[in-house]
Fold these 3 entries.
Entry 1:
Amino acid sequence: MLPVAAEWFSTWFDSPYYHRLYQHRDYAEARAFLDRLLAYLHPKPTARLLDLACGKGRHSRYLSEQGFAVTGVDLSPHSIAAARQFGHERLHFQVHDMRDPLPYGPFDLVLNLFTSFGYFEQEAENVVALRNAAAALRPGGKLVIDFLNTELTIKTLVTHETKTVDGTVYQLYRHFHNDFIVKEIRFRDDAGQEQYFEERVRALNQERFAEYFRMAGLRLAETLGDYQLGPFDPATSPRMIFVLKK
């Protein structure tokens, strides 16, 4: 019997090179987005928040600093181990696969931000993940999914890019294949060994998300198009930010 290949996100997200490559992300922009989102959603001060696919917990920590009780969950044990050093009585982190039912909750607000969805090889798993998120919400609770605008992304795909970070040269190749937007990441590690990783995000459009939401029993309240919370325009918006209600 052949061994089952590891899912790309279970290996790449746990690699120290993943964190090196993306260490210069604009966290000031992310915090500004969270500020706008909280002002738009105006959760009560007593609201319980879930950061679904929280990584190392930077955004969970910021949400906690705003006074909310926050739980951050992520598939990567290394990321959760890094996040837990910042935990306290109102900020908790757990290793969790969103395809499994959430034993935590219920929550008033679930956030899935910065394209942390659509990674799974089987499309049905996306619906399972949404159903689990919906089940973890209180009645009347809200779920926000922040995803890339796939149609615009495919049209404007940069097919090759070279990045040098902390002395490591990364060759990045992007293409569209079998319903996925794929990024190939090639580099030599600190020992001089060639390394190869992939990032794969299913190219989900509005219509398919709408079908997912219907199957998960979620009602779409609004679709926003950028981190300034402007309206969604399929031709020009960089993001698809779905605000859903249970």
Entry 2:
Amino acid sequence: MYKAPLPRALSAACAALTLALAGCAIGPTYRAPAPATAATWHAPAPHDGNAVSLQDWWAQFNDAALTQFIAWAEAGSPTLTQAWASIEKARATLTTTRAGALPSVTASAGATRGGTTGTATTTTRSAGLDASWEVDLFGRVRRNAEAASARVEAREADWHDARVSLAAEVADTYVQYRACGLLADAYERELDSVAKTEATTATMVQAGFTAPSDGALARASLASSRSTAINQRAQCALLLKSLVYLTGRDEPELLATMAAGSTAVPQPAHLSVDSVPAQVLRQRPDLASLERELAASSAEIGAAQADLYPSLSLSGAITRSLGQSLTTWSFGPALSMSLFDGGARRAAVDSANASYTSALAGYQQGVRAAVREVENALVNLDSTRQRATEAHQAAEEYRRYFNATEANWRAGTASLLSLEDARRSALSAEITDLTLAQSQVSDWIALYKALGGGWTPGAAVTTNKNGAQP
């Protein structure tokens, strides 16, 4: 059997160059920047004896419908599917980039028949093997592979960020829908009460016991209450449409799921907040994505700088003519270097440096935004919690005042105007009470999202291409 010397020679040359050049990669050595943050939070942190961590926080709501809605949203979310596709694309780019550091081998085979007039027809068969390898002398391919690897990690962090945002949006919409239903019930009760008042007033006007102006006031109050109740029902319908959009399920299925549980606004367990801002920032997948983009930009500076230097390639070929038992081979290195390119390669280095500067500014801006989100969430939560306590007490007192005024009106010792003023005050206080109860839960959800939603560095992407959990 014939054995050509080319493969051994090529293998030996490749191995020697690989060992000699393994550590050679020009460009900056990347170090992740430390977030510039204060030593502690300046906003009041929530203090509660039952504080829990971010992990499995949604289960602390003890609301089966909410848990189901979040699961449905994650299972069929186009947003998560797009994020997953971005990961797959980044992984494919990484594989393609790494392939540039490996030799390429191409096999060929052919057969031809030919002849001339008066001679016999002949058949010629041949087989060949071509191999080439661009030696990564100055680390251009390695730097590009570093950048591609960092972008895979960035896209994975984006997927986690999309998942946290989706769960928070579903939960907040669900809480708003529950609160909207309670407000609609309150408006319906008030509408029923106003309708009874209007009917009684109309009877009294006809009997001459009260002035026609009181009848006009009663009818105006009834129309206003009816308009408010209609608007509130419309708001609830819109929130239900939003849940359909987020979960991908039909309205009857959503309504049936919610009917099996409580109609009250769900109350979550309180979150524990780390006292050190830098620790909280390490829990944010969006910041992790920005940092990985910064690492990729740094690696691309080295790749652009490597393009300024010569490139070395090794190539060889073996061709075997099967009919004539003739073998030809060739092997040799080739060194190339750009002598004049109009400044294109230098401009590429400048562009890479500018991209790094932009990525660094983006990361720093992201850190500032994250700190602001946490601080704002803490301030809103503290304010809403205090206001909710006062609003609940106010609602109870205004309801007592209305009941007393209504009793006096029926006894003839209070005017209809006083009754309607008391009714509007009681309704306004009840609405404020319900709204703040919903806002308090929404503020907890905002804090959950601002703290990273339970994400930790290195967390795996546990989903398939359709976004569903395995």
Entry 3:
Amino acid sequence: MTRRKAGAPSPRPPPGELDDAAFFRFGHAVAQGGDVVPPRGPQAMAGGDDAATLARFISLAVPRLSAPDATAQRLLAEHGSLAGVFAAAGHGGAGGGQWPDALRVMLLVAHEARRRVQEAALRAQRLLASGPSLHAYLHTVMAHERVEQIRVLYVDAEQYLLEDVLMGQGTVDHAPVYPREVVRRGLELEAAGLILVHNHPSGNPAPSDSDIVMTRRVIAAAAVFDMTVLDHVIVGGGRIFSLQAEGLL
């Protein structure tokens, strides 16, 4: 790799493209001298801890940026939360054009590390007794997905997690579920039970009639092989709906 001589000007991006610092000036007024004016209004309401954490990521990934705090506030306002920013990075920085690769990769790595830590915590305890740990994990993996996903958490006879399997994904309001495939994977893992999970991108976690019908079909198919459906959890709008807790299982 050729090193740039000290004092030489930084190369300009090709016409129509933005360098990392220019990307972050989207949506901001630019004062004389090129300084970014910090955002006002809803941005000021973003959580301080999240903003500080995100600003640190931005500073590390894009050290040339002169206003990481203002940028962090703006991204939090655009995507609602730090988790929303992580999810947006996974979607290629949707909502603000192409993100700087360094920041996007850093956020993806941090998000995956967080998921792995939460999964490790789940494996150390019985799944149905994990409560908040399970809910936090499910929010991390699917709360900000734009289409419906179906996941199945397979457990052993003592309800310890064997595997979290992404069974399929569909559209904004539907994802296909095949009871035969759910049971087949359970037999491969020698699972004693399972928890169905899916998300509602609409934000309303209440089950539809088709959700309840699908659950009953999986229960019937699993029962043939002495597998128990312990719960069906729906994630949406920052909330969790448990069919088991609501007496709908």
